[in-house]
Amino acid sequence: MEDLLRRHRADLPGLILRLAWLQGLTREEIVALKWAQVDFQAGSLFLPDRTVPLDDDAAACLSARYESGGNLTPHVTASEKFRRPLRPESVSRIARTVLDEGGLAGVQLKDLRRDFFLRQLEAHDWPYAVRVSGLSVTTYQACFAGNRAGKKHSSRRGGTFDEFRLWQILQKEDDSAAGLALWMSWQMGVPGKDLAALTWDQVDLDAGVLRLPGQEVPLTNAVRRLLERARAARRPEDDPHVLLSPRSRGPMDLARLSRLVQTALIRGGLEDVTLRDIRAAGERREDDRALLDFARAHGSITRRDAMNLLDLSDTAAYTRLHRLAERGELEQVGKKYYPPGTVVPEDQQWNVIAAYLREAGFAYCQDLAQALRISKRKTAALLRGMVQDGRLLQFEKRYYLAGEPEERQAR
Known about the structure:
Oligomer: single chain
Strand order of the largest sheet: 1-2-3
Number of domains: 4
Mean pLDDT: 85
Low-confidence stretches: 148-159, 405-411
Radius of gyration: 31 Å
């Protein structure tokens, strides 16, 4: 193959072979590929379901093709004569002809793509190979799981993950079986076994609930909208289960559903995440919402409040509140946490105090407490520290900026 590619450095056959062998594209993806999906600066091909890093040799061939007139048509593998997209059959014929001439009779595009996957499997772990090749987890397990030469996949489970990336996956999957499973697991905490067994007679869209064994779970707005769309698309002869196999349109057991969801997560870059992790993340979101609701209702929340509210240890309560503060959902002042915008953050308190005193000349503790929107007791402790470090001067119950003219301080 390397010798053959050297003989076809920048022509159409060489480009087709590189896209299959070095980039792992299917025949249909080669036909559909457009220059807008080729990012030379980022070194990537952006396909509808995945991003594939550009091989250096493939990038050089693409660049040469683009500069020699390939940019006259939006499609990468357009006909050189008619300047229009090739048909899939034409791509296969071109590849077969040049492979036969190069002594690779019998080799097809799908064989080149398979070799691409095996090389990724050897160089990386299997989730990476699945992600960049576009294969499903089911296909990998059925056809390639015996190839153990590759690196072992990390067995980490239950860690934190990027919820924004999960949100991107949810937007892409929408009301597919994987998308519905992820939405209901993340926003409603529905266990995997209940997802696989869920039928439409358990879905009450009018009441806005799922009727699971022993409980009713309220539908979120997003899940309700997706279920309405999914039910409207069902045919009378379809199976009554909510989540159906994309191909057979039949019900799935938990193992099949898990593989389907895992494929979606891997393609979205969350290769170490399971449905159980998604559900746990949803439960943490519910706990965070309870903490934020308490802070809004009471004006603030302390570590002790969080411990009592969620039955947490002291360390766990601190971790939860500190994480919310880092995300900007709470403002920490001393040992209390406030809804954002209701208090002046600690790193801005001196600026507010200094600006107030420059304007007014002096202030009482109660004046500054109102400016900072915190208690008079906490403000008094804050002002004592500023007097001790020399930033403020105190005369009886009045506070001045240090270094102000004596006549202004005495006023």
